[in-house]
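Record type: ASSEMBLY
Status: queued
Input:
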Amino acid sequence: MSAYTEAVVIKLGIAILLALGYWITAATGKFSFGHAAFMGIGAYTASILTVNFDWSLETSILVSGLTGAVAGAFVGWISLRLSILYLAIITFAFAEIVKILLESWDYVGGASGLFGMRGTTIPLVAICILVVIVYLFFLTRSRKGLSYEAIREDEQAARACGLGVTRISVEAFAVSAAITGVAGALSAHETLIITPSQFGAPQSLLIILFVVLGGVQYFWGAIVGAVVLTMLPIWFDFLEDYYQITYGLLFVVLMILRPQGIIGRSTERRFNLDSLKRLVPGRSGGGRDG
Amino acid sequence: MLIQQLVNGLLLGTTFALIALSFNLVVGALDRLNFALGETAMVSAICGALFMSQLDIPFLLALFAALAVGALVAALTFLLSFRFVSAEYHTAPILSSLGVGLVITSLVTRALGSDQRRVPTVLDVQIEIGPLRIVGDQLIILVVAALMTVLLYVFLNRTSWGTAIRGVSDDPDMSGLLGIPVQRVILLTFVLSGTLAGASGLLTGLSFHTVSPFTGFETTLTALMVIVIGGLGNITGGVIAALMIGVIETLTVAYLSATFRDLIVFVLVGITLLARPQGLFTRDTGVVGRV
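Status: finished
Output:
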C-alpha cells in the first residue's frame, strides 16, 4: 500500500471515529458545537505522554479517552440541565477557552504547536473503530439506546416516563467526548504536529456536518456522512478554495430540504397537504401574509 | 488612569450593547438565535470602511450604507435559515445560520481579499476634562449608539409596527388571530436586528480603526456572552451586561494581560449559568424554557 493511500485511509478512519463519537450525543438530541475541543484535549494529552514521558501510543490513547470523558462530563454537567441553545453557547465558549489556554501554555509550545509524534497505523485505527461499532451495535439494541431515542424524539415525554433525562444525556455526552478524545489522539500521531488553532470552530462544524449529513437516526448514517465529506475534497481537489462556501451552503440546503439527514425518515409525513401548510409559515400561527 | 480606563470600557460596552440588542430582538421574535449576526456586522463594517477609505464618502453616508448592508444580509439570513426551515427541528436554524455565517466570511475574503481594512479617523479633536481624555471618534460612537438605542425604544413603544413586534414576541398565535401579519413582522425584526448589527460593526471598526474579515465569529461569541449574562431576550439586562463586560475587558487588558481578557468573561458566564441560568438581571419568565 502506498504512503498516500495509507494516509487517506487513516484520515478516513479518524473522520469515521469522530462522526461515531459525535453521533452518541446527537442521538440524545443534544448537539455540541465545540467537539473539536475534546479532540484537542485528547490530542494534547496523548502527545504529551508519548513525546515527553515516552509512554506507548496504546496506553496514551486510553488515557486521552479518559481525559476526554472527564472534560465531557464536566461540560455536560454545566450545560445539559438547560436548553439546547445554552448547550450551544456553552460548548462554543468551552472550545474557545481550551484554545486560549493551550495557546498560552508554553509547556506544549503555545500557538506554534507541539511536534514529534508518530505511530498511528491502520490496524490501530481499525481496532478503535471496531470497538466503537460493537459498542454502538449493542447500545442501539439495548434499553439505554431506546432511552436515547426517547429523549431525542420528545424530551418531556421521556421525562414523564420516568427517565433521568439529565443523567442519561450527561453520560452520553461523556462517552461521546471520550471517543472524540481518542480520535484526537490518533489524528495527532498522524499529522505529526498539532497547534491549538487546528481545534477551533471550523473543525467542530465539520464534525457536526458529518453527522447532520448522514442523519441521527442510525449510527451508520454518521459513517456515510464522514466518508462522503472526507472523500469529496480528495476527489474534487479543484474545489480547494471553495470548501467553506460548499460546507456552509450544504448546511443551509440540508436544513431546508432534509433536516433529518440523507439517511433517516422524517418524523412527519412530509408531502401531505397538512405538513406543507405547517412547513411554509415556518412557525405555527400567523396571519394572512404574502 | 483608572477613570480613563473606565470610560474606555464603557465606550467599548456601547458597541457590545448594540450587537446584543440585535441578538435579543431576534430571540424575542422567534425564540431562536441568529448565529450569522456577527458575520453580518463584519460585512457592514468592511463595506463601510471601503466606502470611507476608497470612495471618500463622508462618515454619515457610509454609516447609512453599512446599516443598509446589514439589513439586507439579515433579511437574506431570515429567508435562508428561518423562513423555510421546519420548526420541528430545534437545531436546524442554529446550524443553518452558522452555515450562512461561513458562506458570508468566505465570500467576503474571496471578493474583497483577506487583509485588514483601515477605518479613517472621522472627527479629529480631543477633549480633556481633568485627567480624562476623550477622542472625537469616541464621541461619535457614543452619540450614534445612544441615538440608535433611543430610536429603537421609541419605535418599539410608540409606533404600530413596534407594537406589532412586541405583540408577536409575546404571543405569535394571538397576534396572528388579531390580524397582524406575523411573517412580515418577523422579517421586519430581522431587518432591524441587521441594522443594529451593522452599526455595531462599523462603530467597533471606528474605535479600533481597523476591520478584519475574520472577526465575525468572535463578535457572535461576545454577543452570546453578553446575552447570557444579561438574560436571554432581556433588552435592559443586555445593555447593562454589555457595559459591564466592556469595562471588565478593558480593565483586564490594562491591569492583567490581554490573554486573560476572554477567559475572565467566560468564567463569569460559567458562574452565571450555574447560579442564575436565566441571567443576572431577569426574573425567570420562561424564555429559557422556550428557546
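Annotation: The CA atoms of residues 51 and 61 of chain B lie 9 Å apart.
Annotation: Chain B has one domain: 2-290.
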